[in-house]
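hey so i finally got around to running the thing on that chain from the lab meeting. sorry it took forever, my laptop kept dying and i had to restart like 3 times. anyway pasting the input first so we r on the same page abt which one it is
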Amino acid sequence: MSTGLSSSGSSASCRGDRPGAAGAVAIVPAQQSDHVGVYCFLNSVFGGPSQAEFRVSLEDPCYQPGDRLLAKDDRHIIAHVQMLYRSLRLGTLRLPVAQLDWLATAPKLQGRGVGTRLLQAAEDCMVRRGALVGWVRTRSPRFFSRLGWTVCGRYGRSCGDARGVLGAMMEKGLRPGARRSRLHIRPWLLWELSGLAGLYEEWLGGVVGPFERDRACWQWLVRRRAFDQLYVAIDGSDLIDMDERKVQVVGYAATKGEQVLELVASPAKRRVAMMLLARVCHDAIEADCHAILLNAPTNDPLHKVFRRAGGHCRRGVSEGGEVFMARVPRPLLLLRQMKDLLVERATAAGLPHPAELGFLVGTKRYLLTFAGGRLAVAARKPSPHTVELNHADFTRMLLGQLNWERALADQRARPHTDEAARLARTLFPPVPFWKPPLDDLKREGENPY
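ok and heres what got predicted. didnt touch it at all, straight out
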């Protein structure tokens, strides 16, 4: 089971294994003493990472040696997977998640079921650690779908000519050099870290996919230095002030080469995002770089700028043959964790109560009962207001990634009543998805895959 990595080095792809053929292979959590062996194994399969990149990955504030699982045969590492435990935001809800990385089996031992066993063991660990959702980025969705993983989430990328993009913004009235502007774009300073973290936290609630980042995580991302440049947008004086309490960071953009890895702006400052993009375009032109690539949520207005400039916008589930996949091992527990969020949505929509909504997923039933401003979740109880879904679409629905129009038109979603359809679409609306490359991208020269 080999792994084809993207430029981030964080995806996994697997050949089909023959279940039950793994033989006497022990699957054990890694220990600190295994780090040298893990490094050598990863290099034998991937040709990387370098010593510097591997060392900095061990400094991740969330990292523990036991978050790696190793398959060993006669004390030799023959397969490896790493689990990164994080949390992400779904509206006001914080979800504990686990991302799988560096999944691989030694080439000579592929096809013997080792990869299947290792993935199943990783899922067991995820459940024990309390993760409600598993994520993986892979070029082999068939392998993962056999074990209950679902293609989930879309890429949002736009590519265009830097001069054309800048011209399109100026046609809309953008004047980066206008004296009336109090906005200043410049490279960031170390003492502005709290401003970055606060702005990112403010932005998180409207999109699914990005991990939460505390100050320690931001410090590690900075030490890792996977980006080339990090710009900040400062509202106010352009004088350097080392007192972070006096500096209002209203936007930032992280770039690497011609790519905008992450661009976040305050919702209250509508022009900040375009000002940041304009600065990136100016730098690209100065460096004689003709193309610029934007990574952003699919609903980001900046994609429209690229379209006006004649650029290409890609919003598919696959990018370079690579897809995001999710696994919800305990749907009932996730639904119970979502109760407050579902009540918020029901209240905002003015749903009458009492009301109930059932789901039939294969042979499993789930029932939501809304009454008195509260929501109860039960299993195995039928309801006349039921929606039938397959496992994959049920997972997408829970994570806000189900396109109801398409699912209903294709009869993948089959509501038994009009009331069931209305309730389901109200309680589980689609939410924009985005996985920022900054979380996973390796340092310069660390992406030969």
